[in-house]
Write a structure and sequence with these properties.
Blueprint (H helix, E strand, L loop, with lengths): L3 H16 L5 H17 L4 H17 L8 H16 L15 E6 L6 H13 L5 E5 L7 H9 L6 E2 L7 H8 L8 E5 L8 H14 L3 E7 L6 H10 L5 E5 L7 H9 L5 E5 L7 E3 L2 H8 L5 H11 L2 H13 L4 H13 L3 H5 L12 H19 L3 H5 L6 H11 L3 H23 L2 H11 L7
Parallel strand pairs: 1-4, 1-5, 2-3, 2-4, 5-6, 6-7
Antiparallel strand pairs: 7-8
Helix pairs in contact: 1-2, 2-3, 3-4, 4-11, 5-6, 9-10, 12-14, 14-16, 16-18
């Protein structure tokens, strides 16, 4: 999980509030100290931490509790709102124009992960039906163009590079006629060891010629609070419209990088949350804070679901749900969709309520392993068995086990899971859709149950 230690500390703090009998000054002081400790351990600037916690304390002491909430719920809501505001408030959308192709220019220093991010950004937009191309304008780093080609190949995105040319403007103009075939062109530019006048000058020249819709600064989360200096300098030079923070999964300094960028006025647009090309998401402060506090992030979950399942498949599932039909092939489809959405742990933390439960990594890994075994077992079943699992008796289980290499006990577990899922489908069929939506929206509220 991104910022796992910070998340764990803050969730423990909120649980302490949930279990307390009274909300008094002693509890408020403890809460403030716990939040300070958690943020400081995540490398957030000391001054910013004290300003944030003072705001939280002032609101708790001065505000009246709204009638719909208890004192505890109101206290938790204040923490949620202030942390969200601290990380930028509202989600910052990309400003892409109607005139195609749109262009996104990536800027950054050496080692920030620009080229890898170019690939992740390309995959992000291809999954959303855009025709994307990559353009390599880093003429200073010897392996930059080869690396960009390696990044583009596995995701089937065309890459335009000119290895012999040392002028980025000439490279741009060489391939400019080709860009008309695409919806989006992602431009990978050169970096430096530090921000310098010659780098700014080169970026301005490229910017004047390419006229990008967005110029995004790529910063590695492991630089922590130093991100503020970089973001501020690039922002003041007029070179950027937003920030992408990479390597958010592997560092304790991620909190420092996020908060540092947020205070510069350069909005964070995306974050890299893992090494894989799909470990990349639009930064939404509300959802991000919700995940950290264990409240879930329904918007990100729905976004993942859209990527994992087509509209046609969704309509087919809807028809089956309305009829109350469900078989092993449907369970198989569910499992495939889940695996496309990413690791089970990351999916669970987006579901309101489940994010508060700290499931052991071993248990999650075992569950993911089980899903793989069940897939093997289903591949050894006949069409009749998949469509009507009630025909599967002990003899058939034995045959399926031998054919798939999956133990008979694991196959019985799968059939048990199918029966439970079928019961749930029948229950959904009986449930009034309007009532069901009300229940879901109520569960999505950012609060803990007491």
């Amino acid at each position: 999980m991104v910022l796992e230690k910070l998340s764990e500390s803050l969730k423990n703090t909120l649980q302490k509030i949930a279990k307390s009998l009274f909300v008094d000054e002693k509890l408020i002081n403890e809460l403030v100290k716990d939040i300070q400790r958690a943020l400081l351990q995540s490398d957030v600037n000391v001054k910013l931490v004290f300003e944030l916690t003072q705001k939280i304390k002032d609101r708790i002491l001065k505000e009246e509790t709204p009638g719909a909430l208890t004192k505890k719920e109101h206290l938790i809501n204040i923490v949620y709102e202030e942390l969200t505001e601290f990380l930028g408030g509202e989600k910052s959308e990309l400003k892409l124009g109607d005139k195609l192709p749109n262009k996104i220019m990536l800027i950054g220093l050496f080692g920030s992960g620009k080229t890898t991010t170019a690939g992740k950004l390309a995959k992000y937009f291809t999954k959303r039906g855009k025709r994307v191309a990559l353009l390599g304008l880093d003429v200073h780093r010897p392996a930059a163009m080869d690396q960009l080609m390696q990044v583009g190949k596995p995701i089937n995105v065309p890459v335009f590079v000119s290895k012999g040319e040392k002028d980025p403007i000439k490279i741009y103009k060489q391939f400019e006629p080709e860009f008309k075939k695409f919806d989006l062109v992602i431009i990978d530019t050169a970096g430096r060891d530090a921000l310098s006048s010659d780098l700014i000058e080169e970026l301005r020249k490229v910017h004047d010629v390419a006229k990008p819709d967005e110029a995004l600064l790529v910063i590695s989360a492991d630089i922590g609070q130093a991100a503020q200096t970089q973001a501020k300098a690039f922002h003041e030079a007029g070179a950027i419209t937003g920030v992408i923070v990479t390597k958010m999964d592997g560092t304790a300094k991620g909190g420092g990088a996020l908060s540092a960028c947020a205070v510069t006025g350069a909005p964070i647009k995306f974050i890299g949350v893992g090494e894989k090309v799909d470990d990349f998401e639009q930064f939404n402060p509300k959802g991000f804070v919700g995940r950290i506090l264990g409240m879930g992030d329904l918007e990100a979950l729905l976004e993942k679901a859209k990527e994992a399942i087509t509209e046609e498949e969704a309509k087919d599932i809807e028809k089956k749900l309305l009829k109350g039909e469900f078989n092993l092939m449907d369970l198989y489809s569910q499992m495939e969709a889940m695996s496309k959405m990413g690791p089970l742990g990351k999916v669970l933390e987006m579901i309101p309520g489940l994010g508060q439960i700290s499931l052991p990594k071993e248990a999650l890994q075992m569950q993911e392993g089980k899903l793989k075994m069940w897939k093997h077992a289903m591949n050894s079943m006949t069409k009749k068995e998949l469509e009507d699992p009630d025909v599967i008796d002990a003899q058939r289980i034995e045959r399926i086990s031998k054919g798939s290499g999956v133990s008979t006990s694991d196959i019985r577990d799968m059939i048990k899971q199918y029966k439970q899922s079928k019961k749930m489908v029948k229950m959904l069929k009986r449930e009034n859709p309007e009532k069901l939506m009300k229940k879901l929206s109520k569960n999505a509220r950012p609060k803990l149950k007491f």
